[in-house]
Design a protein that fits this description.
With 109 residues, the protein is mainly alpha-helical. The protein contains five helices and no strands.
Length: 109
């Protein structure tokens, strides 16, 4: 795990937009690497994406209500599923769309 220092609770201290913006940094790296034909870099960034989204799914924002966390959890799991499928298919347009969505969170940080 490359983000092991975040698993000790630091990740849950970040706001949801900060978590999503960090995830977006990795999706941006995935897309750029694939566009450049750098499979190894894309695979590494994809692994980091998975780590960060899994941390968000696992820890998220602990101070949210149970209902809000449940809805967020479902949406994040679906996003992860769709992103992973797009990555496996090397569907650059879907990966770019996901990246544009995550870019919105960077402006909220």
């Amino acid at each position: 795990m490359q983000h092991s220092s975040l698993e000790n609770g630091r990740w849950a201290e970040l706001s949801f937009p900060q978590q999503m913006a960090n995830i977006g940094s990795e999706t941006s790296r995935v897309l750029k690497a694939l566009e450049a034909g750098k499979e190894s870099r894309a695979e590494s960034a994809f692994a980091r994406f998975q780590e960060l989204i899994d941390l968000t799914i696992r820890y998220g924002r602990q101070d949210e209500s149970k209902t809000a966390r449940s809805a967020m959890w479902e949406e994040l799991c679906r996003f992860r599923e769709l992103y992973c499928a797009a990555f496996e298919e090397r569907n650059l347009s879907e990966l770019a769309a996901a990246n544009r969505y995550l870019d919105l969170f960077a402006s909220i940080r």
